[in-house]
UniProtKB/TrEMBL annotation:
Record-linked InterPro entries: MZB
GO biological process, one term: interstrand cross-link repair
GO-annotated molecular function: 3'-5' DNA helicase activity
PANTHER family hit by this protein: ATP-DEPENDENT HELICASE HRQ1
Name of the featured protein: MrfA-like Zn-binding domain-containing protein
Amino acid sequence: RAAASAAADAAAALCGAAAICPHGGGIAGLLRAEEQHAHASCGCLRHCSMDTALFGHDLLQAAAASLRARALLGRHPGAVPNPAGADLLHYTGPEENVSRSIGLRSIDPEHFSILDEASGKVLEEVESKKAFFQVYDGAVYLHQGRSYLCKRLDLSARVAVVRAADVKYYTRIRDYTDVHITGGRVAYPTAPAALVVESAAGGRTQSAADGGTESPAAASTRAAAACIDLRETPESAAAAAAAVAAGASPCDVTAPRPPPATTSAVCETAVVTVRFMGFHRVWRGSGQVFDAVDLHLPDFMFETQAAYLRVPRAARLECQSLQLEYRAGLHAAGHALLNTLPLFLICNPKDVGTECDNPYATRFRIDRLLLYDKQHAGGVGLSAQATPHFFSLMERALELVTGCTCTSPGGCPMCVQHVDCNNYNAVLCKRGAEVVLRHAMEAERRAAAAASAVAKSQHHHSFAA
């Protein structure tokens, strides 16, 4: 067997349970090319018979070919020819123990060293993406139960100098995370029900929904828009507002779910920017903030993958009519999705993030539910795997929110609070999350019904022709 097959040993240690996840793919779907190559390089010194089952034939062959081109794998000169015709490979790189030069637990190649001022010893090395959350000028750094005060942070040398200190407070960073979608999809497609087809003379051609006939070109345009647009028309928005005013919900949560293939959720590349504004000093005993300090640190940016779905305008209208904070509802709905994500993918709370609001945010926020890979640059594929299950995620999230018996307006850790919230679970509205999720699910059902009707119409016309 190819010696690169032993990569499954290391992979199973990190992601073993992923191979039996009922919704997600195997381990191969969670590993990027760099990770596959690192696993293969380290695993080539061992033996395993589960390579194809965990990685798949194509991915394993691609990793082996790349490593051979980099002179890290090669054919063993004394190997007995394989009857199947496959090359028997072994490690041929310069390192005697390849695992010392390749970190499988830490993918980030850049680190900050934390140096003890008194002894001159390095206490720890921290990944660059986590450094500014732990060490900065004035930060209280904890190491093996002891408190240290960060005296100096050298960005060019990537060294933080700390000194042992017995303080009665801890520090908490103030940061803001922005997720910018950079994919090539149309940001604001044409609404299908409000589609207006202009004639050559500048007049309006009556659509089929208005009782008239439309051209094949207009029908095809409307069909394309129906599959991707979730915006409300003025008529539907007015109907939703009237239903809310009458005390009825415009969303029918008992309606049939759309098939996963028709979900309007998409997965695109995104750029995440973390801006560090300052930090708070907080008393240990009471948790009270007694000081705020500004910081001047560079932004941390990385590219990743993000899955998102637009929320219809009717959700905002219902929140306004019920005097609920709409932004807090979006924030809480995103947390509910994160809390239900482990039902579909094997991940921990820090693997995937969402857009979190802080109490002082005034900038425009897009009406969407978004999940993004937050651990490693480039993403690890969790958002991509969650995309076809977005409706089921919302369904479970709505069950979680409505079934929780807590009475707090901001929810609890069992429903809309999340352990890894960037803003410490501020600006949350449990009832608003229920409104947002219901309307998003109803919009998905309408989009699925429109796509199904168009498909049936096209099939009927082709059969008649």
